[in-house]
Amino acid sequence: MEIEQQIWGATSEGEAVVLYTLRNAAGAEVRLCNVGAAVVSILVPDRDGHLADVALGYKDFRSYFGDPALCGKSIGRVAGCIAYGTMRIDGEEYRLDINGMAGHLNGGVKGFAGRLWESRVETNRVVMSLSSDDGDQGYPGNLQVEAAFDFDEDNALEITYIARTDRTTPVNMACNLLLNLGGEGSGSVLDHELRLDASTVLEADDRLIPTGKLLGVAGTPADFRSLRRLGEGVDSDFDRIRMLRGYDHFFPVDGWRQNILTEVGELRDARSGRRVEILSSQPGVTLYTGNRLGGGCPETKSGGRYRDCEGVAVVCQGYPDAVNRPEFPSPLLAPDGFYCQKTVYRFGTFR
């Protein structure tokens, strides 16, 4: 594995924005940058061996600061929502930064996705780290986090998040990797086929706050237990799909066991023959079909602007609003605990 690093630019304070390229012997590569610990590009072959970038992203490093789509970026402290921006831990109530209809979303206005991380090469991987002070966005505890990125000779990208705290706090890290297996900038992903190992979907109300109810997917547009086109159900009224203009739903993974890496599902593109198998230790995934990509994303790598549904994310994460829902797997990290979650994207082809 070859790893290159170069200075992509500098912030107004003179801090370096670093671009890392992890390249295997076959010429496939992953590029990362330390703004939001982001996956910037993924270059993998189609069924005929032609390489293309399948990860959505931007032309200029400055666009990775404050982008609404959070393309490829590491989200924290907590991915998803915390209802109304309030939570209670050990009998004490905390009020968090409010930045969305549901309350507190994806770590707040100044969440981890918009920050410059420390970064380094460790032998054959790239590791990025960040410190979050007590009171940051309203969260308790000083939190130390790391994101480790590995890419191997079989075109598998492995992302590992670890964290420690000195005070009990919720942690739910996730990578918001938006993919188009036909190639970035090639158009809609609604012809992609998806399989998810999920027999239920988490119901949400009109503000997209979880109700706590799990809906069975059998016979509904949320049934991806076998490969199905993403576009088949986007006009359905089931669980607000039409209102959302596509999928933006959380699916608990069937058979999830804590700290065990399990298969989540598979995404395919029949035109290119590319596929990606997804494995994770997280209890669920959020499926997002890029419903709002056309709402102000910066200039793209291919020199245009993304339109709605030109990328799809299968975001491996914990349950949304879990800190307020004792029936969900707990997101709380204690001072004597160790947070570690892993997601693997295995890229390949099919005929």
Kindly describe this structure.
The protein has 351 residues and is mostly beta strands. The strands form 8 sheets. Strands 11-12-13-14-28-24-23-18-21 form a 9-stranded antiparallel β-sheet, with no helix packed on it. Strands 1-2-3-4-5 form a 5-stranded antiparallel β-sheet, with no helix packed on it. A hairpin with a 4-residue loop joins strand 23 and strand 24. The model has no long low-confidence stretch (mean pLDDT 96).
Task: Describe the secondary-structure layout.
Blueprint: E1 2-10, E2 16-23, E3 29-33, E4 38-45, E5 51-53, E6 74-75, E7 81-83, E8 86-89, E9 92-95, E10 103-105, E11 118-122, E12 125-132, E13 143-151, E14 156-165, E15 169-170, E16 174-175, E17 178-179, E18 193-196, E19 200-204, E20 210-216, E21 228-229, H1 241-244, E22 248-252, E23 262-269, E24 274-280, E25 284-288, E26 312-317, E27 332-333, E28 339-349
Antiparallel strand pairs: 1-2, 2-3, 3-4, 4-5, 6-16, 7-10, 8-9, 11-12, 12-13, 13-14, 14-28, 15-27, 17-26, 18-21, 18-23, 19-20, 22-25, 23-24, 24-28, 25-26
